[in-house]
Design goal:
The chain is about 50% helix and about 20% strand. The protein contains four helices and three strands; from the N terminus they run αααββαβ. A three-stranded antiparallel sheet has the order 1-2-3. The N and C termini lie far apart (about 120 Å).
């Protein structure tokens, strides 16, 4: 008999202890909802630290990808405009000068300085402005990393972009 009474008492004590454990959740000293001393507001600090730690590189990555995408649009537009301007000129020398000016103007419209770009021109056949010849303009652009001081001396670049455009010189000018 005594063993049965003891087993029943021990079992009922366990039930009360588990009920108390469920009442007092994490961050509470007892079931009354008060926080433990020394922990008020620590979740806000942890969230702020982790948000900064994770969000700053993500925002920088998005800005860098945006700069590269803008540079891609810029070189395509610059090459296209430079090829169109080249074939409209009366001679090859003025064609190259006008094409280079058009390419740099198109790049400036996208916010890229002329120092980061260069232009190459090639013709097929070698007489560039003969009727029926194809003039190919290639624009090369270096996109620097954003917000990096002294990027010129360190040569830290996000990307090297190239685009080509070809125009055929018309028979009737």
């Amino acid at each position: 008999m005594e063993t049965a009474g003891r087993a029943g008492t021990a079992g009922s004590d366990r039930g009360i202890q588990s009920a108390r454990a469920h009442e007092s959740g994490p961050g509470t000293a007892s079931g009354n909802g008060t926080t433990r001393p020394g922990e008020p507001g620590s979740a806000v600090v942890e969230f702020t630290f982790l948000a900064l730690l994770l969000m700053v590189p993500l925002v920088y990555f998005i800005i860098t990808v945006g700069q590269i995408q803008g540079g891609a649009f810029a070189v395509v537009g610059a090459a296209d405009q430079a090829a169109k301007v080249y074939v409209a000129q009366p001679d090859a020398e003025s064609g190259r000068a006008a094409a280079e000016q058009a390419a740099m103007l198109a790049l400036a419209d996208y916010g890229h300085p002329a120092d980061n770009a260069r232009m190459d021109a090639s013709c097929q056949p070698s007489d560039c402005l003969a009727p029926g010849s194809a003039v190919t303009i290639t624009v090369h652009l270096t996109v620097p990393l954003p917000f990096v001081p002294f990027s010129d001396s360190f040569r830290l670049n996000a990307s090297q972009l190239d685009a080509s455009a070809t125009q055929v010189v018309g028979r009737f000018r």
